[in-house]
Amino acid sequence: MYKAPRGTSDILPHEQGYWRYVEEKAALLCQLYGYQRITAPVFEDLGLFTRIVAEGTDIVDKEMYVIRDRSGQKLALSPEGTAPVCRAYLEHGLYNLPQPVRLYYIAPAFRYERPQAGRYRQHHQFGVEALGDADPALDAEVIEMANQFFLSLGLPGFSMQINSIGCRACRPKYIEALKQHYSPYMAHLCPDCKVRFTKNPLRLLDCKNPSCQKVAETAPKSIHYLCNECRTHFESVQEYLTALELPFQVSHRLVRGLDYYTRTVFEIQSQEEGAQSALGGGGRYDDLIEQLGGKPTPSVGFAAGIERIISSLRARKVDVPALPKSHVFIAYVGEEAKLEAMKLASRLRRGQIAVMEATGSKSLKGQMRQANALGTSYTIIVGKAEVQSKTVILRDMKSGEQKSIPSAEVETALKGTESP
User: Fold this and answer.
1) In angstroms, what is the C-alpha Rg of the chain?
2) CATH classification of 13-170+226-315, choosing from 3.40.50.720, 3.30.470.30, 3.40.630.30, 3.30.930.10?
3) Residue 40: what are its φ and ψ, rounded to 5°?
4) Residuewise pLDDT in 10s, the chain (420 residues)
5) From the CB of residue 157, how many other CB atoms can be counted at a distance below 10 Å?
6) CB atoms within 10 A of CB 182
7) Alpha helices of 130-190 — where are they, by DSSP H?
8) Where are the domains of the chain?
9) What letter does residue 187 receive in the DSSP assignment?
10) Which of 15, 58, 241, 367 lies 20 to 30 Å from 263, alpha-carbon distance?
């Protein structure tokens, strides 16, 4: 028997309520802030990701799903959402629009990771990107959006962690100081960190290995190496967040997992999720679009994993609205009645009344059991006598009361009743 590939999962009908809840909250939030939806392909040219994500990161070295199509082109299933949005921004000339261009997406992402709670090889992200403005007020706007998103979901138990990792002008001095700090401890570092020391030193601060964390605790802080512009930018971000009465903590070990970030980085951390504490995060990426061949375009954004959000909603027993059910079930007795039942169902649906009709050769008793199991509010019964008299039996499934009414008056009788 075939099964879903390891690290993936089917989203079954009874789970769809959570997905609709999260997606509707995301769409409403973006409407309030003026962000428009964009949808990119699920696969891109491999170079889009290898050009902006350095070797030494897990995404490039271990996690990307790479394929070669029949033309010989190397493609990758998108491991994250920002790069495709930036590619679309350049390809379609969105830089000609008033800046910043505010976009959001809800899309799958693919990474070959070791499956565990909160980590999947295919997961889904909600993300926002504001492209074309260096104002630190835009950083604060995006951070506030992330904060409001989780509050709107009913997940108040989280903290907002922020940091600044500088820019390409001041970061090299910090990286050199970081390497000097780590050099005496090389023998105690995990194998991954020994690679990171050479290829991606910032990621040393993000290692979860206990021995590596001890070294990271005494590491130099990036904010002590910021240039004047980056320091002023970070101070302004904090000033704006304070003015917005948005609680935050400066976390000196926060670097995020992608190399294209500059200056502001932030992360939303659940206080109840254990090892997988990050619900989402983001930051500024002022050099990314230039790396892709465009003009310098300062930008900022954030993304959140929907599966991890839903897991948190369930853990906290957050009630989400149930998906609408069919309001009416139509049962029939006999082939002649079946034809009339089909015609009636079609008529009601055209009148925007949700209907589910019986199929097959179940007895009337079996059809009524099905109507009960589906949770419909009303059942319409059509038999030979009803066909001849052009009537139907309308049964209230909650009270058990039923009455005979003309078939032509069914819509009127149902008008104003509420769906469950």
Assistant:
1) 28
2) 3.30.930.10
3) -105, 165
4) 999 889 889 889 889 999 999 999 999 999 999 999 999 999 999 999 888 765 545 566 678 899 999 999 999 999 999 999 999 999 999 999 999 999 999 999 998 888 777 678 899 999 999 999 999 999 999 999 999 999 999 987 788 999 999 999 999 999 999 999 999 988 888 988 888 888 888 888 888 888 888 888 899 999 999 999 999 999 999 999 999 999 999 998 888 766 788 999 999 988 764 445 788 999 999 999 999 999 999 999 999 999 989 988 888 888 888 888 888 999 999 989 999 999 999 999 998 889 999 988 889 999 999 999 988 999 999 999 999 999 999 999 988 999 999 999 898 888 766 544
5) 11
6) 22
7) 136-152, 171-182
8) 13-170+226-315, 328-413
9) G
10) 58
- Count the residues in the chain: 420
Q: Report phi then psi at 141, rounded to 5.
A: -60, -45
Place of tokens 């139907």: 392
- For residue 353 the two structure tokens come to 């009344």
On whether the CB atoms of residues 269 and 159 are closer than 8 A, the answer is yes
Location of structure tokens 């000609």: 96
Instruction: Give just the sign of the alpha carbon dihedral 128, 133, 137, 139.
Output: positive
H or E element in which residue 85 lies: helix 82-91
Contact 60, 200 (CB under 8 A): no
| Residue in 341, 350, 353 with CA at minimum distance from that of residue 414 | 353
Q: What is the pTM of this model?
A: 0.87
> Which residue carries 């499956």 as its tokens?
115
